Amino acid sequence: MFLKEKESGHLVEVVDVKELIDPMKPTFMGRYNWGEDVPEPEPFDKSKVVFPSGEPLPRCWTDVHYRDTEVSH
Questions:
Q1: What is the average per-residue pLDDT within 18-23?
Q2: What does the mean pLDDT of the chain come to?
Q3: Domain membership of residue 6 as a residue range
Q4: Backbone angles phi, psi at 64, to 5 degrees
Q5: How many domains does the chain fold into?
């Protein structure tokens, strides 16, 4: 899976999708997708990436409390 950095527009390959969709983790391991050499994975902040189409990540991937109002009713 690839995501795009908001500021630079560079593609980031997600190393572990489970880490990406875990709302308890604000970062995920990924690597830039450029050149012939595969770079070492590094942490990326979920708030600084979007899907390649420009769509933001789903809230359930970034906010552990995304359904708190529904549960309290």
A1: 96
A2: 92
A3: 2-71
A4: -65, -20
A5: 1
